[in-house]
Amino acid sequence: MARAPDILKILQRGDKHYVGGGNRLLWAPPFPLFAGVPGFWDEAHFYNFEFRPLFTWTLLGEDGREIPLRFVSRRWDPSALLQTYAGATPRGTLSVREFRCIVPRDVAACDISVEFRGKGRLAVHFVAWTAQESGGPGGATDAVFREDGFAFFKHASAKGSPGMRLGLLFGLRGKPSSHVLQLSEGTLPPPRWDLSPMYEKFSAGRL
Known about the structure:
By secondary structure, the protein is mainly β. 2% of the residues lie in helices and 42% in strands. It contains 1 helix and 13 strands. The protein has one helix at residues 7-10, and strands at 19-20, 25-27, 44-46, 49-51, 56-60, 69-77, 80-89, 92-103, 107-118, 125-129, 140-146, 149-156, 164-170.
């Protein structure tokens, strides 16, 4: 019996970046500025309501300093987007694989694996973070930290639409060892850890 072809492998490409789960949430920025940056920092759409950003993530070394990641490659198929990054520390190099997908229940997710080549074992801190406007017509409100992550509300609106109030949740697969909710003013920062308000809140291995 002939083996069925692997359709996803046949459709693989390196020049696409969008992901969707076949439901209401879609991440398909037409002119992405941060496609080579971890996470989903460019705009997403829920129905035709735009949200930006979703989230990004950062690796910190044992000393709490950021391990810069350099974008290496991209592989897309209709189910997920695989991006690879390279990093370096004084003790060796890192190879990082990030699977991005949106599951049918409208969850934007990243599955990350890190391989270290160097002397001994390397402990890293994984920090997932976001930045959301507060106040104003579309700002985040009622943000609280729960056992499963940060929960907050946003009022989504579009031209010619009365809009709707949506509840959002931002969290990790497991319970984080520490967290911080930092209120600040000004424009939304780019996805750079050293420019985020959380940068100054990380000390002794904790937020």
